[in-house]
Amino acid sequence: MSYSEFVKDIKDDHIASLYVFWGRENYLVEHALKLLKDTVVGEAYEAFNYIVLDGMEATVDHVLESAETLPLFAERKVVVVKSAPYFQKTKTGLNDKEEEKFLHYLSSPSASTVVVFISAGDLDKRRKVYKAAQKSGKIVDFDKMGDVDFAKWVGKRFKSEGIAMDSATLRYFVESVGYLGKNAEKTLYEVNSEIDKLVHFTKAEGAITRSHIDTIVEKSFETNIFELLDALSAGDVKTGLHSVHELLETGEAPLKIISMISRQFRMIYKTKALQTEGHSGASIASKLGMPGFVANKNINFGRRMTFDQLGVVIADCISYERMIKTGRMSQEIALETLIVEIIAAIKGPGR
Question: Which domains are delineated in the chain?
Answer without folding.
Answer: 3-141 (3.40.50.300), 147-216 (1.10.8.60), 221-347 (1.20.272.10)
